[in-house]
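User: Let's play a game. I give you a shape written as tokens, and you guess the letters that built it. Ready? Here's round one.
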């Protein structure tokens, strides 16, 4: 895919109408937020093919196209909820951090990669559940998640921007015992959560149950379609939402799609 095509999403983001909050989907669990004043926040961006290169087998071959060059935008901030390479992109991260203003908010388990890649540590903030960070128009409240023993440091994040509250669960299994704690962070305008049901993540039914418990205004499923080994059925997610919480609104976002919040 040529650079012109791959930068189309960057152009779309740069030219999104000012004064409004935009959410763009880059694939897997990756999103970019644009605030009313134009500040950009990247979330768990996977923009390269490093997972297949590092893991070394076909189950982690990238199945969705690369639609955004890591050089296309100078982000104000990047969040990496844990160190798995589809959330902390080892090939793209040095490019994303090549500008002088971009700040990285990363779980503590990302420290080894930050050092290996020689990222500027003064622009890196390591976060754990309970931490609150502020960046331009954004307030980031980091919350617990449970991604199993392979990423005990993984976090979710509640983002407040221009009065809108977004709960991004990060990679996590379904923990009914934590619903009440999460509810106290709400109400949420948007909930983003995985549906692939593998590698320590909730499945389609569990995502619908979490939506039913938290009652966000909009539920967006993520973490499907990128790798053959990951699973996740958006069709089954739709069925579960209609069965478990038919009153709740949900949206399946196309890769590259942007919506107004």
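Assistant: Ready! My guess for every position:
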């Amino acid at each position: 895919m040529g650079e012109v095509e791959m930068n189309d999403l960057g152009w779309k983001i740069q030219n999104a109408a000012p004064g409004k909050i935009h959410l763009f989907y880059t694939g897997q669990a990756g999103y970019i937020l644009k605030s009313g004043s134009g500040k950009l926040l990247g979330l768990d961006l996977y923009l390269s093919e490093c997972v297949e290169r590092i893991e070394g087998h076909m189950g982690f071959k990238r199945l969705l196209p690369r639609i955004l060059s890591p050089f296309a935008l100078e982000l104000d901030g990047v969040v990496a909820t844990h160190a798995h390479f589809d959330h902390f992109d080892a090939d793209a991260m040095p490019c994303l951090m090549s500008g002088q203003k971009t700040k990285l908010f990363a779980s503590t388990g990302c420290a080894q990669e930050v050092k290996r890649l020689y990222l500027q540590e003064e622009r890196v903030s390591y976060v754990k559940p309970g931490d609150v960070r502020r960046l331009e128009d954004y307030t980031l409240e980091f919350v617990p998640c449970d991604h199993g023993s392979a990423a005990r440091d993984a976090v979710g994040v509640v983002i407040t921007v221009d009065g809108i509250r977004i709960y991004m669960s990060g990679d996590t299994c379904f923990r009914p015992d934590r619903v009440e704690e999460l509810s106290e962070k709400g109400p949420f305008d948007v909930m983003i959560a995985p549906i692939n049901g593998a590698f320590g993540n909730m499945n389609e039914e569990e995502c619908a149950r979490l939506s039913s418990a938290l009652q966000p205004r909009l539920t967006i499923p993520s973490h499907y379609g990128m790798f053959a080994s990951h699973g996740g059925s958006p069709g089954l997610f739709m069925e579960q939402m209609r069965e478990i919480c038919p009153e709740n609104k949900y949206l399946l976002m196309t890769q590259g799609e942007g919506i107004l919040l």
